[in-house]
């Protein structure tokens, strides 16, 4: 099973590999730069080669990249939209040179210009960027959101609409965040509600588009539209949902990444708990 956490690249992007191994990951997610800054120090050839070498030597079998939180591909502000598109293009470049297959991003916020406006701007941004980097192998993944503020992507229909407007549909996928989906109003706490939610996702978006999971419990109640992550089993989702998901054969080969509060040792506790919920599975 591809199971792990978002780990730091402090001291160099290649250091993320060792950090993932230390806490027992078989998959990791990273920022390739400081997520709260627009500018980024260029990755050197040494950075790139060392990352690839360390990854090859490790037991990790999956790496995912996440873009900067500053980027808004649905912005109604022309200057901010241009800045966001350029920044996302840089994120794509960094992800591609490192050989990382997936780049997770929050779709965008319409900033009171209306959901329809924002969805069209996001699709327009993706079309421009996918055309600009037409030979790239990486796949951008639209992350499901909680719908806080004017953020889009909190309904499966919104994700579907964006994908429908993307010309190169085979080059985009979805990252399913459990806390975000729950806060958006999709119940996954019991077998019945879990199946209902994923059947709805399959009907509207398609399970074949689901390429990654973020595993987070929620500090806020169902349908709160508030994005607050909690440690596994300590929030309003509870353990049963994660037990069902981790043992769902449909998602055995889909990477599952923790973004729970705390530091690396807290991730290890969450990972150990998740592993205890699985039935007859082996972890490296």
Explain how this protein is built.
This protein is 39% helix and 15% strand. By secondary structure, it is of the alpha/beta class. The protein has a single domain (3-276), classed as Divalent-metal-dependent TIM barrel enzymes (TIM Barrel, Alpha-Beta Barrel), CATH 3.20.20.150. The longest helix is centred in the N-terminal third of the chain and has 20 residues, at 78-97.
Q: Helix segment count?
A: 9
CATH class equals: Alpha Beta
In CATH terms, what is the fold-level topology? TIM Barrel
Low-confidence parts: none
Q: In what order do the strands lie side by side in the largest sheet?
A: 1-2-3-4-6-8-9-12
User: Number of DSSP strands?
Assistant: 12
Along the chain, the helix and strand elements come as EHEHEHEEHEEHEHHEEEHEH
Question: Rg, please?
Answer: 18 Å
Rounded mean pLDDT is 96
Task: Break the fold down into its secondary structure elements and pairings.
Blueprint: E1 3-6, H1 15-22, E2 27-30, H2 45-57, E3 62-66, H3 78-97, E4 102-105, E5 108-109, H4 115-132, E6 139-143, E7 151-152, H5 156-165, E8 173-177, H6 178-183, H7 191-204, E9 210-215, E10 217-218, E11 229-230, H8 239-246, E12 256-258, H9 264-276
Parallel strand pairs: 1-2, 1-12, 2-3, 3-4, 4-6, 6-8, 8-9, 9-12
Antiparallel strand pairs: 5-7, 10-11
Helix pairs in contact: 4-5
């Amino acid at each position: 099973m591809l199971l792990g956490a978002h780990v730091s690249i402090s001291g160099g992007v290649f250091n993320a590999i060792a950090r993932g191994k230390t806490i027992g990951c078989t998959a990791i997610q990273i920022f390739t730069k400081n997520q709260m800054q627009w500018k980024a120090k260029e990755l050197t050839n040494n950075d790139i080669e060392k990352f690839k070498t360390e990854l090859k030597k490790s037991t990790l079998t999956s790496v995912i990249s996440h873009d900067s939180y500053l980027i808004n591909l649905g912005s109604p502000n022309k200057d901010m939209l241009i800045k966001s598109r350029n920044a996302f293009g840089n994120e794509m470049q960094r992800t591609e040179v490192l050989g990382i297959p997936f780049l997770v991003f929050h779709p965008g916020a319409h900033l009171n210009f209306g959901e329809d406006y924002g969805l069209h701007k996001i699709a327009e941004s993706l079309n421009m960027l996918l055309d600009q980097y037409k030979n790239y192998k990486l796949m951008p993944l639209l992350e499901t959101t909680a719908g806080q503020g004017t953020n889009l992507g909190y309904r499966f229909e919104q994700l579907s609409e964006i994908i429908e407007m993307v010309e190169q549909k085979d080059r985009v996928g979805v990252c399913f965040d459990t806390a975000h989906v729950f806060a958006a109003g999709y119940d996954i706490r019991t077998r019945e509600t879990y199946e209902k939610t994923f059947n709805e996702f399959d009907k509207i978006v398609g399970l074949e588009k689901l390429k990654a999971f973020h595993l987070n419990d929620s500090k806020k109640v169902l349908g709160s539209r508030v994005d607050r992550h909690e440690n596994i089993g300590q929030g309003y989702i509870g353990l049963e949902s994660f037990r069902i998901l981790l043992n769902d054969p449909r998602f055995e080969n889909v990477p599952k990444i923790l973004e729970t509060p705390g530091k690396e040792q807290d991730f290890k506790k969450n990972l150990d708990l998740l592993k205890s919920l699985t039935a007859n599975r082996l972890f490296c």
